[in-house]
Amino acid sequence: MSQIEVRFAPLTAHVRTARLVALAVARRARLDEELLDEVRLAVSETCSRAVAVHASRGSDEPVTMRLSDDHDHFTIEVVNVGTLVDDPAQSMDLVEASTRALSEAGDDPASPDAMPPGFGLAVVSGLVEDLFVTSDGQTTSVRMRWPLVAALANLAEPTAS
Amino acid sequence: MHWKLHRDGPLEADVDPDLSVSIRPEGNRTVVAVSGEIDVYTAPKLREHLIDLVATGQYQLIVDLEAVDFLDSTGLGVLVGGLKRVRSHDGSLHLVCSQDRILKIFRITGLTKVFPIHATIDEALAAGTDS
């Protein structure tokens, strides 16, 4: 098990840094090349969401991203302050939400052109099979897990007993 | 000579290490060529360009995403916002993108059915301004 923790001020400029770190660590963990774009997108969505939650609460506490890998899995956890009140992600129909975003008139001056709340997390749930969102009353954690190449190889070619 | 170079080049070029936007006319349409990464930090810049175009009466847009190497849902929101704005003037917003990793987010969100998406600029120009 190796673990890396990144803490960054809740600024949108740092979301790209989070993506770059995640990509580098995922490569080092030998995550399948085809999953790297998925990791990049998932980190972008979860970190953007965390930064937005901090901003909406006026919090300048850092956002935490933890990356770890064990023999079978590569895991990324993004932690923000606050309980989960804003995310109907698990039940959101992305296609329906996109269509609604298009037909709704008028811009919200506070967040012009934003997709509906929870949309980013819903994108992640559409991408990542192992997604766990938990809240302990003070913080919210979004944990995403991908199988590592070694684990995939074991599935494809079960070793003879 | 400077004048001529300027006329032959893009009408406007906004170069940034994270996101560059360059705008040029193609007949009665306007091509917005974007390169770099479109995320929560850079998307406001693209939004400003799209708002400016609509404000100056340019409603037939082609947004070229071929040189974009990252796009997330914040970027999608800006494109959807752009489409809403041009549609309110009976305009169109076509996309040029052949990269599977960018197209994926359009597919999972159903936006492939909302935006006309073309593999090349020529194809987008040939398709006309129906949306």
Which bin fits the share of residues in helices of chain A?
40-55%
Poorly predicted residue ranges of chain B: 1-8
What is the CA-atom radius of gyration of chain B, in angstroms?
14 Å
Count of individual beta strands of chain A: 5
CATH architecture of chain A: 2-Layer Sandwich
Mean pLDDT of chain A comes to: 86
The CATH topology assignment of chain B is: Transcription Regulator spoIIAA
CATH architecture of chain B: 2-Layer Sandwich
- Strand % of chain A is 15-25%
The H-and-E topology of chain A, N to C, reads as: EHHEEHHEEH
**Order of neighbouring strands in the sheet with most strands of chain B:** 1-2-3-4-5-6
Helix content of chain B: 25-40%
C-alpha end-to-end distance of chain A: 26 Å
The total domain count of chain B is 1
Q: Find the count of extended strands of chain B (DSSP E, 2+ residues).
A: 6
Q: Given the C-alpha coordinates, what overall shape of chain B results?
A: globular
CATH fold field value of chain A: Heat Shock Protein 90
Number of helices of chain A: 5
Order of helices and strands of chain B: HEEEHEHEHEH
Description:
The complex is a heterodimer of chains A (161) and B (131). By secondary structure, chain A is an alpha+beta fold. Helices cover 42% and strands 24% of the residues of chain A. In chain A, strands 1-2-3-5-4 form a 5-stranded antiparallel sheet. In chain A, a hairpin with a 3-residue loop joins strand 4 (130-135) and strand 5. The radius of gyration of chain A is 17 Å and the shape is globular. In chain A, 35% of the residues are buried. The model of chain A has no long low-confidence stretch (mean pLDDT 86). Chain B has 131 residues and is α/β, with parallel strands linked by helices. Chain B has a single domain, classed as STAS domain (Transcription Regulator spoIIAA), CATH 3.30.750. Chain B has a 6-stranded mixed sheet with strand order 1-2-3-4-5-6. In chain B, a hairpin with a 2-residue loop joins strand 2 and strand 3. The longest helix of chain B has 15 residues, at 73-87. Residues 1-8 of chain B have low confidence and may be disordered.
